[in-house]
Design a protein that fits this description.
mainly alpha, 6 helices
Length: 234
C-alpha cells in the first residue's frame, strides 16, 4: 500500500503527538501516585519508590524524543526518523522494566514494610524523632489502624497502658486512648494493600502505554522506509 509523501509525513506527525500525549499521561500518573503516599514515605523503602521515578524519567525522555521526531518530520530526514524509532524502542524497554519491577515489588513488599515500620515504632517517643511520631500518627489516623499488626504492640514499646491517640481516631482529644478504644486493625495489611494498588497502576500504565508507543514506533519505521523509497524513485 502506497501513501503520498504528504500523507506519510502527516501520520508521522500524528505519531509524535501520540508519543507526547502518552508521555504526559505517564508523567502525571507517576506524580499523582508519588504524592498520594508522600506523607507516608518514611515507612517505604527506597526501592519501593523506584517505579514511579522510572516512569517519570520515561515521561521526560518521551517528551524530548517527541520533539526530536517532529524535527525529523519537518526536515524530512530519514536518518532522524530511524533514530527516533530506535529511541522510542529504548523508552519502551525502560517502561517495561518499570512495569515489571512494580509488579515484582508489589508481591514482596510486606517483609520490607514490616521491617521498616518495626524500626520506626521504637523511635516513636524519642525527643529527636518528632517526624517519626507525626508520621505514625498520620498513618494511624488515615487508615484507622493501630500498630503494625495489633494495638498491644504499643503497650510493650511505650511501657504504658496509654496508646498513641491516633489509635483511637474517634475518641475525644481529652480522653486517654487505651486498648479498649483502639482500632483492632493493624496498619501493615491496610498500608500494604494501599501501596500494592498504586504499584499495580504504575505497572499497568507503563506496560500498556509502552505497547502503544512501540506500535507507533513500528509505524514510524515503515513510513520512514516509505519516504526513503519515494526519494529513491525520484
Amino acid at each position: 500500500m502506497t501513501f503520498p509523501s504528504a500523507t506519510a509525513r502527516l501520520f508521522l506527525f500524528l505519531f509524535n503527538v501520540i508519543f507526547l500525549a502518552t508521555g504526559t499521561a505517564i508523567g502525571v500518573t507517576a506524580i499523582l501516585i508519588e504524592l498520594s503516599f508522600s506523607q507516608h514515605s518514611i515507612f517505604v523503602q527506597e526501592k519501593l519508590t523506584s517505579p514511579p521515578i522510572l516512569v517519570a524519567i520515561s515521561c521526560l525522555v518521551i517528551s524530548l524524543v517527541s520533539i526530536f521526531g517532529c524535527c525529523g518530520v519537518i526536515k524530512e530526514s530519514r536518518c532522524i526518523l530511524y533514530t527516533f524509532s530506535v529511541l522510542i524502542c529504548a523508552v519502551f524497554i525502560l517502561e517495561v522494566v518499570a512495569g515489571v519491577f512494580a509488579y515484582q515489588q508489589a508481591g514482596v513488599m510486606k517483609d520490607s514494610l514490616k521491617s521498616k515500620m518495626k524500626e520506626l515504632q521504637y523511635d516513636y517517643n524519642k525527643i529527636n524523632e518528632t517526624i517519626v511520631k507525626r508520621s505514625w500518627d498520620v498513618l494511624q489516623y488515615d487508615f484507622q489502624c493501630c500498630g503494625i499488626e495489633k494495638a498491644e504492640e504499643w503497650t510493650e514499646i511505650l511501657h504504658s497502658s496509654s496508646l498513641p491517640h491516633s489509635c483511637c481516631g474517634e475518641l475525644p482529644i481529652d480522653r486517654t486512648c487505651t486498648i479498649k478504644d483502639a482500632s483492632k486493625l493493624g496498619c501493615i495489611t491496610l498500608f500494604e494493600k494501599f501501596l500494592k494498588s498504586k504499584m499495580v497502576i504504575v505497572g499497568g500504565i507503563a506496560v500498556s502505554i509502552g505497547g502503544i508507543q512501540l506500535l507507533c514506533s513500528m509505524g514510524s519505521c515503515l513510513l520512514a522506509r516509505h519516504l526513503n523509497k519515494q526519494y529513491e524513485v525520484v
